[in-house]
Structure formats: C-alpha cells, structure tokens
Design brief:
mainly alpha; 2 helices; 51% helix
Length: 63
C-alpha cells in the first residue's frame, strides 16, 4: 500500500508526540461524550485514527 502525504499528515512528528496526542484526544473524546448521549457505533475522533495509522506505519502502535 502506498502512503501519500495526504494519508500520512503526521509523518514528521516524533513517535512520543503521537502517543501523547492520542492520549489527549482520547481524554477529550471521553469528556465530550459526557455532554451528549452515546450512540451505538460511536467512534473516537478521526484524528486519533490518523495518529494510530502513522504509528502502525512505524511499527510502534500501542493499542
């Protein structure tokens, strides 16, 4: 699979920055969920998916 700059917008960020960003984004998503009813199939924000994709590409994904 070919990865372009569009599919890897965080390719230049240090790995630890991405791990920290995922933690912050997840905490934000949990807090935001308190103010709206949870819907079946709710997912974490797309930005988390982008960070996780980049970490998977690097082989350093921590679920």
């Amino acid at each position: 699979m070919t990865h372009s700059a569009e599919t890897r917008p965080f390719r230049d960020e240090p790995t630890e920055v991405l791990h920290t960003a995922i933690g912050l984004a997840a905490a934000h998503a949990r807090q935001a969920a308190r103010f709206r009813p949870a819907q079946p199939g709710d997912a974490l924000p797309t930005v988390i998916d982008l960070f996780q994709t980049e970490l998977q590409h690097r082989g350093d994904f921590r679920p």
